[in-house]
Amino acid sequence: MPGKGQLGQGLPPAENKGVQGKLGTRDIVLVGLFTGLTCIVALILKWGGDILVPFSLLPLMSLLAGAFLGGRLGAISMLVYVLMGLVGIPVFSKPPFGGPMYLLQPTFGFILGFIAAAYLTGKIIEQGSAPSLTRYGLAMFVGVMVIYIVGLPYMWVVVNFFLGKAMSATAVIKVGFLPFIGLDLIKAGFGAVLAHMVTRRVGAIVRRPVG
User: What's this model's pTM, rounded to 2 decimal places?
Assistant: First the structure.
């Protein structure tokens, strides 16, 4: 008798929706793996100390989550990471490293952006039956932009309305965007090459053919 994971194999999209709606054991393992890797990266791969938006590989992790796991599972892995931090587990990269008060950190919006970035990155790649390196690059670029689209307004709101400091939109861009966008685009390019190369060799991870 076939198991639950086998029931969805070989079904056309219309018939497979109900099966894909639930997380199987394999999906849970993959989500947990990327959540764990993200926690590790957040704690040990950071550079910059007291600057407002520390250099880290967290944006790359969110992009790779979408590329490897697909939009849905990639977003779930980032959501689990965010929830772990908010309940008090010290998985964020800046003090206090966790807890609900982290919502008032100016950089928390970028962390929220990881969820949307993983989702959109995965969805763009999923649109092609055999995604090319160009599609991977486009998906990673969109993912990076989404992180900033979510993070910069959040920073402006927190600084102006919760921290009580006057900060213009131009200042937010100068502080939270211009110093980091170059490195993030480099990371996105590296992520595109890495994801395309890995999925060509281990396509079963993402359950789709890769050209």
Answer: 0.83
14-55 pLDDT, tens digit each:
434 444 568 889 899 999 999 999 998 887 765 544 444 445
Domain assignment present for residue 2? The answer is no
Distances 127 to 35, 73, 138, 142, 188 between C-alpha atoms, Å: 24, 16, 12, 14, 19
Q: Where are the alpha helices (DSSP H) in 45-107?
A: 58-69, 71-86
Distance CA 173, CA 182 (A): 13
- Give the structural domain span for 60: 24-202
Query: One-letter amino acid identity for 173?
Result: I
Q: Please report, for the domain that includes residue 180, its CATH number.
A: 1.10.1760.20
Which residue in 164, 187, 183, 165 sits closest to 53, CA to CA?
183
Number of H helices, E strands in the chain: 9, 2
Q: How far apart are CA 187 and CA 154, in angstroms?
A: 23
Q: Which helix (H) or strand (E) holds 32?
A: helix 25-44
Q: Please report, as a single letter, which amino acid is at residue 115.
A: I
* Segment 60-111, tens digit of pLDDT: 999 999 999 999 999 999 999 999 999 999 998 888 889 999 999 999 999 9
Mutual angle of helices 71-86 and 108-126, in 10-degree steps? 170
